[in-house]
Amino acid sequence: MNTLAQMRSNPFLSPLGKLLSNIEPWAQSVFLLGLRLYVANVFFLAGLTKIRDWETTLLLFTEEYKVPLLPPDIAAVFGTGGELVLPVLLALGLAGRFGAAGLFVMNIVAVVSYPGIAPAALQGHVTWGVMLATVALFGSGKLSIDWTVCKAVWQRIGLKQTRAAV
After folding, report:
1. Which residue has the higher pLDDT, 69 or 14?
2. In this structure, are residues 151 and 161 in contact, taking their beta carbons and an 8 Å threshold?
3. Alpha-carbon Rg for the chain in angstroms
4. Which of 9, 69, 116, 152: CA 20 to 30 A from 160?
5. Mean pLDDT of the chain
6. Distance from C-alpha of 134 to C-alpha of 131, rounded to nearest angstrom
7. Alpha carbon 21 to chain centroid distance?
8. 3-state class of 114 per DSSP?
9. Cα–Cα distance for residue pair 74/134, rounded to 1 Å
10. Contact 140, 146 (CB under 8 A)
11. pTM for this one?
């Protein structure tokens, strides 16, 4: 029996159990929103930096970054495009799992393609990877466009809402 179920069955803790069971889905959604906004900001600013000085970006992709399977100019376009589009989806919670998964893959490619990555930078990438994996696995939460759209669709077709994050 889980802790919330035990609280509900105990007459002294029942009100606390009810309160926690009502707060928990929203607390999870606030946490997921924080993750989404933080990581989206990191990647979007990186994309803006790349687009501001395109010549330097092309030079970096040619000389420094060794992206597997792609020519440097195409890797630069895909990388910059991904860093500008996917964070917007992630921040809005619009196809949030897709945005998180796409940035997760980009994060891995960034680590693999830059052999001289410093330990502190690697730790940042690991942290972002964990945050992105969390959103990809649990969804965007109730504070997202995904949730709003799914809720409207569920109501339209007569399905009961679940507590699961979208």
Report:
1. 69
2. yes
3. 20
4. 9
5. 89
6. 5
7. 25
8. coil
9. 29
10. yes
11. 0.82
